[in-house]
């Protein structure tokens, strides 16, 4: 009930003295510029629930990484397994079931898994012009994987001077965080004349072991404490007592991000952009695995991701001179190289297991838009090619001698190719009524070769799949005035099985082994939602969305047999055989309510709250995994010239253990016996423009030093955290 108090408060102050019409009229219009919904920047209403984070908001909120950027909206839930982790959840969908797009290029690749992913952290928020989230199935424009929604990140472009002279605009900042051990430095410079521009950006961050909050619930006085960790002395694993149990030893990591853009605008209506992005990390310890116990002692001496590398090179051609085929057109060709590795060694064992994956992704996107009378038509295509190469070995920690080990994916290589064609039409039936509909055809082909079957005598040498799908959406948007908007939307989504779904071999936990299943098929969602936005007077805006989603053909990991056996010997232990299978239907329904109240020209109160329920359609109505508890955000923001300040609260409701999925990715082993307790944090931040080129920022997060974890997370959130930032821009 306490989560609704901000809304009651907003209604109570509605009759407070109003500002003049001139001072507030600019904020009444419900239209906003969108990137995500239609791929083209279009000013006008859209029928989808969206979240927009502008460049100025990114600088003001000053997030440590892109996962925290999304989390701070209060509308995106984020799960964490380690310090260098953050897995966004959109409407109960996560990882490979939500889509990440950077500058028009999909980041999701053939080895995105269905559990928890930290790939969004490899996007540097310092380089972003804006970020947007499109909630709900979005396969019409974006194809496979967009079951729960799309996270779209648009990086900055070089600034052109509009004249022969060169415009030079450098900027930089340094940031310190006390509880996170953060030391981040960033610098960028933009150079541009009338036609040609360059932008170079470099960010380096070093993050220490996170210190969690000290104030715990009386029922769980030791929850999250790290009492022991492992060090290596004289070629032996030595358990060490942690002098500060609140310090989560094994959560530190480093990251480097580089961006280079070249923009060429030979004439009005034609723009070429070359975009190169590179991100790499140091070793990223898997903190949750490092805290697991077996027979009264730590299970692992080592468990970390090796350096995670992401290279994106893309070319974009944007045309805005109208022709018979289009008014605007975009062509994007891209190549991505991704490198990931997993290294683990059990406590006291000599064998260190190393698995390395390299993925190369080629893609081409063409999107065109044409206004034809009352019709706004958009159409396009997407082609992708994924190549996956897996290697593995075991290394003796004492001698360094290598040995054979099973690869995570087929050692003979895997490929995934996709084709998508779509068309949509937004027709203005009247000044107040817009009908929008479209359809997409998607096709994919997956091939994988098993060469060495020493570790697992699979009954097949290769896997081949060629699924296809038709998806679409239909919406009706009613806007009788600039103060009111009502939209009704029906949409579908699909996700074709990828290399991770079909071919992965791994141990999800002790005594359990997941093996390939060539028989799985695409997943589908069927979604209906109603959204309402309303201005009350000139100062209060209310938004509400309700959605209902049917999730069919859902891929779940369940009991399986390999060569007629339900258990096999793996890693020296008999393990139950599991495999991904289409064995589930589920219903997800939820809501979002939000309010924004302009108290004065400088002071704004805003609040948002989200609730999601997910149940499997079985006799027991088993809870669906990945469903977050009720969560939201309330903020009071002050802006006045050189000074900006904000007091805000983030909050999560209880996730009771009875609402955990017993076999999925909810990670009950990292929660209390009762589930994950509710929590609220109080935070404050401010910035002061000390001069024409200098801005100083400070924030105190989790002021009350609460100890808490996000649902399904295996690491506790930072305790009281002081951040200091100095920015310089010319």
Write up what this structure looks like:
There is one protein chain. With 730 residues, the chain is mainly β. 5% of the residues lie in helices and 55% in strands. The model is unreliable at 1-27 (pLDDT under 50).
Which features does this protein show?
mainly beta; five-stranded mixed β-sheet; 730 residues; 22-stranded antiparallel barrel; 45 strands
Task: Determine Rg (CA atoms, Å).
Answer: 26 Å
Our measurement of the CA-to-CA distance between the termini, rounded to an integer number of angstroms, reads 48 Å
Shape: globular
Strand content: over 45%
Structural class: mainly beta
Number of helices: 7
Given as residue ranges, the uncertain stretches (5+ residues, pLDDT < 50) are 1-27
Percent of residues in helical segments?
under 10%
| Main sheet attributes: strand count, strand direction, barrel closure | 22 strands, antiparallel, barrel
Overall residue-averaged pLDDT value: 91
Secondary structure tally: strands: 45
SSE diagram, text form:
Layout: H1 5-12, H2 21-24, E1 32-34, E2 42-44, E3 50-54, H3 55-61, H4 66-71, E4 77-79, E5 87-90, E6 93-94, E7 99-102, E8 105-106, E9 128-135, H5 139-142, E10 149-155, E11 167-177, E12 182-192, E13 196-207, E14 228-233, E15 236-241, E16 253-267, E17 270-281, E18 284-285, H6 287-290, E19 293-294, E20 297-298, E21 300-305, E22 309-319, E23 328-346, E24 351-372, E25 375-396, E26 402-403, E27 414-428, E28 433-449, E29 462-465, E30 468-481, E31 484-495, H7 499-503, E32 506-509, E33 512-515, E34 523-536, E35 540-559, E36 567-570, E37 573-598, E38 603-616, E39 631-640, E40 643-652, E41 655-656, E42 675-676, E43 679-689, E44 694-701, E45 721-729
Parallel strand pairs: 7-10, 33-37
Antiparallel strand pairs: 1-2, 3-9, 4-5, 5-6, 7-8, 9-10, 11-12, 11-45, 12-13, 13-16, 14-15, 16-17, 17-22, 18-21, 19-20, 21-23, 22-23, 23-24, 24-25, 25-26, 25-27, 27-28, 28-29, 28-30, 30-31, 31-34, 32-33, 34-35, 35-37, 36-37, 37-38, 38-39, 39-40, 40-43, 41-42, 43-44, 44-45
């Amino acid at each position: 009930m306490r989560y609704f108090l901000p809304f009651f408060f907003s209604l109570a102050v509605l009759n407070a003295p109003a500002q003049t019409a001139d001072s507030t009229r600019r904020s009444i219009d419900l239209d906003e510029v969108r990137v995500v919904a239609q791929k083209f920047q279009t000013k006008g209403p859209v029928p989808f629930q969206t979240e927009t984070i502008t460049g100025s908001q990114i600088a003001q909120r000053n997030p440590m990484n892109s996962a925290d950027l999304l989390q701070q909206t209060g509308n995106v839930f984020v799960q964490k397994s380690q310090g260098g982790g953050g897995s966004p959840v959109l409407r109960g969908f996560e990882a490979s079931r939500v889509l990440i797009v950077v500058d028009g290029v999909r980041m999701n690749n053939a080895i995105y898994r269905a559990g928890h992913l930290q790939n969004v952290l490899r996007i540097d928020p310092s380089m972003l012009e804006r970020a947007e989230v499109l909630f709900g199935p979005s396969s019409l424009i974006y194809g496979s994987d967009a079951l729960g929604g799309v996270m779209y990140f648009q990086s900055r472009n070089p600034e052109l001077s509009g004249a022969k002279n060169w415009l030079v605009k450098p900027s930089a900042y340094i940031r310190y965080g006390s509880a996170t051990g953060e030391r981040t430095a960033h610098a960028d410079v933009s150079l541009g004349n009338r036609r040609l521009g360059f932008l170079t950006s470099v960010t380096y961050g070093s993050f220490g072991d996170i210190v969690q909050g000290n104030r715990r619930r009386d029922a769980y006085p030791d929850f999250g404490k790290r009492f022991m960790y492992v060090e290596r002395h004289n070629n032996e694993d030595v358990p060490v007592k942690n002098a500060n149990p609140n310090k989560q030893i094994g959560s530190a990591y480093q990251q480097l991000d580089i961006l280079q853009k070249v923009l060429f605008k030979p004439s009005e209506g034609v723009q070429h952009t070359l975009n190169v992005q590179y991100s790499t990390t140091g070793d990223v310890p898997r903190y949750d695995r490092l805290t697991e116990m077996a027979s009264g002692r730590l299970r692992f001496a080592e468990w970390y991701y090796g350096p995670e590398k992401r290279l994106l090179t893309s070319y974009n051609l944007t045309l805005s001179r109208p022709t018979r085929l289009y008014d605007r057109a975009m062509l994007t060709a891209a190549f991505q190289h991704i490198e990931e590795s997993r290294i683990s060694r059990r406590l006291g064992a000599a064998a260190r297991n190393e698995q390395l994956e390299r993925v190369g992704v080629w893609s081409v996107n063409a999107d065109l838009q044409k206004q034809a009378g009352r019709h706004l038509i958009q159409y396009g295509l997407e082609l992708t090619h994924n190549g996956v190469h897996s290697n593995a070995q075991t290394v003796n920690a004492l001698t360094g001698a290598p040995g054979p080990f099973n690869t995570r994916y087929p050692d003979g290589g895997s490929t995934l190719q996709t084709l998508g064609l779509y068309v949509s039409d937004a027709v203005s039936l009247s000044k107040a009524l817009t009908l929008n509909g479209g359809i997409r055809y998607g096709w994919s082909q997956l091939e994988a070769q098993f060469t060495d079957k020493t570790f697992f005598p699979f009954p097949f040498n290769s896997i081949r799949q060629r699924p296809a799908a038709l998806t679409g959406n239909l919406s009706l948007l009613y806007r009788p005035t600039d103060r009111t908007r009502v939209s009704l939307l029906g949409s579908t989504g699909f996700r074709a099985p990828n290399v991770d779904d079909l071919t992965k071999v791994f141990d999800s936990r002790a005594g359990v082994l997941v093996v390939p299943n060539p028989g799985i098929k695409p997943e589908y969602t069927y979604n209906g939602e109603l959204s309402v936005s309303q201005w009350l007077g000139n100062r209060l805006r209310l938004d509400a969305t309700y959605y209902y989603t049917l999730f069919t053909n859902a891929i779940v990991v369940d009991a399986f047999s390999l060569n007629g056996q339900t258990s096999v010997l793996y890693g020296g232990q008999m393990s139950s055989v599991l495999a991904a299978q289409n064995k589930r239907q589920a219903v997800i329904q939820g809501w979002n309510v939000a309010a924004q109240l302009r108290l004065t020209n400088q002071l704004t109160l805003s609040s948002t709250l989200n609730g999601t329920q997910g149940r499997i359609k079985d006799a027991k109505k088993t809870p669906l995994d990945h469903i977050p508890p009720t969560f939201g955000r309330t903020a009071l923001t002050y802006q006045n010239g050189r000074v900006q300040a904000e007091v805000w609260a983030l909050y999560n409701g209880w996730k009771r253990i009875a609402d955990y999925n017993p076999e999925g990715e909810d990670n009950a082993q990292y929660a209390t016996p009762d589930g994950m307790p509710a929590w609220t944090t109080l935070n404050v931040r401010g910035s002061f423009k000390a001069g024409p080129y200098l801005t100083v920022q400070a924030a105190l997060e989790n002021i009350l030093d609460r100890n808490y974890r996000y649902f399904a997370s295996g690491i506790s959130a930072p305790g009281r955290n002081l951040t200091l930032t100095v920015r310089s821009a010319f």
